[in-house]
Amino acid sequence: MELMYSSTRNDKVKLTASQAILKGLADDGGLFVPERIPALDVPMDTLADMSYQETAYEVMSRFFTDFTEDELKDCIKKAYDSKFDTPEIAPLVDADGAYYLELFHGPTIAFKDMALSILPHLLITSARKNQVKNDIVILTATSGDTGKAALAGFADVEGTKIVVFYPKNGVSPIQEKQMITQKGANTCVVGIHGNFDQAQTGVKKMFNDTALEAELDVAGYQFSSANSINIGRLIPQVAYYVYAYAKLYKNGAIAKDEKINVVVPTGNFGNILAFYAKNMGLPIAKLICASNENKVLYDFFSTGTYDRNRDFILTSSPSMDILISSNLERLIYRIAGNDAEKNTKMMEELSTDGKYAITDEMRAQLADFYGNYTSEEETAKTIK
Ligand SMILES: *Cc1c(COP(=O)(O)O)cnc(C)c1O
């Protein structure tokens, strides 16, 4: 059965996965969410013996149901190849009493390679499936890592162009050099006066500008997004949680169906969309939402109020320096009972007052999550 995607701000919207990937963001400003979360109906003993690519296929084929087996396998093959410095793609390492999933083996050393190495292929395939004649112009706001990983993923991919906006004084010197030295005839990088949230808000405005859309269409272009709001980036990330669990099981570190806690560093609430893996049936106990000093998510989980009215702190983890956590909207929509109207009201409050509070009923559904944060001092100490 085809899995359709609707908008978190309008239940009436029904798109196929490839259409949702192409659009990136819904016309009403909402995010695309699958109508239901498919079950991971593959036995753990089977998953235990699978490669990263095979696991990715099992997960992604459940979500992207309008892709053929050949199309999806081709995308996966092109993404997770020798660009990664290990055939394991995402090795699991046992250290200091915890298991670490290493997500930095891709071409730009950022975890974002996990998704951005496949997104261009998903997009091009989606364009072909939907008879799109226009070239796809990727607009991306970055707080550091996304920009480089997206530029590397899209560089010289035929039928695409990419424009990256980054806060001129908000990324590390290495990240800036990584971006402005990017090769590729179809790449473009812009430093803005402002922070990441302002860059992201500007990009969202361009996406919602219908006059601009018409003008581009005449010129043979259309926008899409490589930010983590695109489900073409989020769903591939669900795969590594399944892969990690299967490897723990294979190693004998856990028994069958044993629950694990997963600690996820997150800013835009993309990486922690791991909750889709839990909703698929992966035995996860708590999803631990790890923030830096921009602890807006920690405060949200501890009080039920999301409040972005605070100073934006530049930390040593700029990729997580975010006060408007875009993908949290997917969780809000879910705990509102997939109620687009309720969700829209809260998102409007966020944009006018910079804050909203969820109901006690919604809060009761956050038992899967635990939030905490670390100071700059603790971060430095831990890295050392
Ligand atoms: C981007 C990034 C994150 C956070 O990802 P979200 O999509 O904001 O959840 C965490 N760690 C690193 C290294 C990153 O680059």
Would you kindly provide a brief summary of this structure?
This protein is α/β, with parallel strands linked by helices.
Helix residue percentage: 40-55%
User: What is bound: which ligands?
Assistant: pyridoxal-5'-phosphate
Give start-end ranges of low-pLDDT stretches.
none
Largest sheet: 4 strands, parallel
Instruction: Give me the side-by-side strand order of the main sheet.
Output: 8-7-6-9
- Which value, in Å, is the CA radius of gyration? 20 Å
Count of separate DSSP helical elements: 17
Strand content: 15-25%
Mean pLDDT: 95
Coarse shape: globular
Number of strands: 14
Distance between the termini: 50 Å
Class inferred from helices and paired strands: alpha/beta
What does this structure look like?
- The mean pLDDT is 95.
- The protein has helices at 17-23, 44-48, 52-63, 69-79, 113-116, 119-129, 145-154, 173-180, 196-207, 210-219, 231-250, 275-280, 296-303, 328-335, 340-353, 360-363, 376-383, and strands at residues 5-7, 10-15, 32-34, 92-95, 98-101, 135-141, 160-167, 187-192, 221-225, 260-265, 284-291, 305-307, 355-357, 369-373.
- The protein is of the alpha/beta class and 384 residues long.
- β6 (135-141), α7 and β7 (160-167) form a beta-alpha-beta unit.
- The strands form five sheets. The protein has a four-stranded parallel β-sheet with strand order 8-7-6-9. A three-stranded antiparallel β-sheet has the order 2-1-3. Strands 10-11-14 form a three-stranded parallel β-sheet.
- The protein contains 17 helices and 14 strands.
- The termini are far apart.
- α1 (17-23) packs across α6 and α4 (69-79) packs antiparallel against α6 (119-129).
- The longest helix has 20 residues, at 231-250.
- Helix content is 41%, strand content 18%.
- The radius of gyration is 20 Å and the shape is globular.
- Bound molecules: pyridoxal-5'-phosphate.
- The site of pyridoxal-5'-phosphate (PLP) has 15 residues, from loops.
